[in-house]
């Protein structure tokens, strides 16, 4: 299940471009003030909060679930021989990934100002000196302020499982999550992430310059907590799905095979 979480990224250039826009929601951050109509900014037609909602509705077999954009796209882009259960296997992999994405502040934000009137693509257009493969603000936050750099090699080795397990326990012990972990509304998740961007992510830093040490310390703390919060919410979301009532045991077993 853990190894499945990179699937949504892995397929972007292998027939999975249809879901590239589902990884984020570019809520505009007007760092120079004004109003959004002053800029050439357009929200994406589909985003991560809609995608999570559509996938959850599909798993729960809510009335009209087959009319969602997510259902249509996933089933259309599957192999001709795929059944709905096969498509649900893809849907589960995507859900695991998107729940993590939406808790990364720059997956929920796009800075909009005179320099970037159409948005800075969640910090992807904010260059910083390359370090450990991270060369823009978005990638710095993806790496948890350089704490987790590079890309995992699949399948995991025994040593990788041990390291990841130790990291997960360390972070969970460091950031105990209370009632906020029970909030299963992806719109609230995105709003929480946006608040971090609005209050901290872009504060007192400049494009093309090294990020200050105190900034990286605080960024790492915020990102670590978001990992634990996102993981807690994902766990609670998975436990809330009505799979046992709507899906056969064989289908459930096949989701992550």
Ends distance: 9 Å
- Examine the coordinates and then state which fold CATH places here, giving the name of the CATH topology: P1 Nuclease
* Strand element count: 4
Mean pLDDT: 94
- DSSP helical segment count: 10
Question: Per the principal axes of the C-alpha atoms, what is the gross shape?
Answer: globular
How helical, in percent, are the residues?
A: 40-55%
Compute the CA-based radius of gyration: 19 Å
Major sheet, described briefly? Answer: 2 strands, parallel
Strand content: under 5%
- The low-confidence runs, each spanning 5 or more residues with pLDDT under 50, are none
Full CATH superfamily name? P1 Nuclease
What does this entry look like structurally?
It is a single chain. The strands form two sheets. The chain has a two-stranded parallel sheet with strand order 1-2. The protein has one domain: P1 Nuclease (Orthogonal Bundle). It has helices spanning 7-10, 48-59, 69-77, 84-101, 137-142, 158-174, 186-201, 213-240, 243-246, 249-254; strands spanning 28-29, 110-111, 127-131, 134-136. Strand 3 (127-131) and strand 4 form a beta hairpin. The radius of gyration is 19 Å and the shape is globular. The protein starts with 6 loop residues before the first helix and ends with a helix. Helix 2 packs across helix 4, helix 2 packs antiparallel against helix 7 and helix 6 crosses helix 8 (213-240). It has 257 residues and is mostly helical.
Please describe the topology of this protein.
Blueprint: H1 7-10, E1 28-29, H2 48-59, H3 69-77, H4 84-101, E2 110-111, E3 127-131, E4 134-136, H5 137-142, H6 158-174, H7 186-201, H8 213-240, H9 243-246, H10 249-254
Parallel strand pairs: 1-2
Antiparallel strand pairs: 3-4
Helix pairs in contact: 2-4, 2-7, 6-8, 7-8
């Amino acid at each position: 299940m853990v190894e499945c979480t990179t699937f949504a990224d892995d397929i972007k250039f292998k027939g999975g471009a249809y879901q590239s826009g589902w990884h984020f929601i570019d809520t505009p951050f007007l760092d120079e003030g004004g109003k959004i109509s002053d800029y050439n900014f357009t929200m994406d037609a589909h985003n991560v909060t809609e995608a999570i909602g559509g996938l959850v509705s599909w798993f729960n077999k809510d009335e009209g679930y087959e009319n969602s954009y997510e259902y249509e796209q996933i089933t259309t882009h599957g192999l001709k021989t795929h059944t709905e259960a096969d498509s649900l296997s893809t849907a589960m992999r995507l859900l695991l990934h998107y729940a993590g994405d939406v808790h990364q502040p720059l997956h929920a934000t796009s800075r909009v100002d005179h320099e970037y009137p159409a948005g800075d693509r969640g910090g992807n257009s904010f260059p910083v000196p390359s370090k450990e493969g991270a060369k823009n603000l978005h990638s710095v936050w993806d790496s948890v302020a350089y704490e987790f750099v590079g890309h995992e090699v699949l399948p995991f080795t025994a040593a990788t499982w041990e390291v990841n397990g130790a990291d997960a326990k360390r972070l969970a012990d460091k950031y105990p999550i209370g009632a906020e972990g029970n909030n299963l509304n992806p719109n609230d998740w995105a709003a929480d992430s946006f608040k971090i961007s609005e209050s901290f992510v872009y504060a007192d830093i400049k494009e093309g310059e090294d990020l200050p040490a105190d900034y990286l310390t605080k960024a790492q703390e915020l990102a670590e907590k978001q990992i634990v919060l996102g993981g807690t919410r994902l766990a609670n979301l998975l436990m809330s799905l009505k799979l046992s009532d709507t899906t056969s045991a064989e289908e459930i077993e096949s989701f992550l095979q």
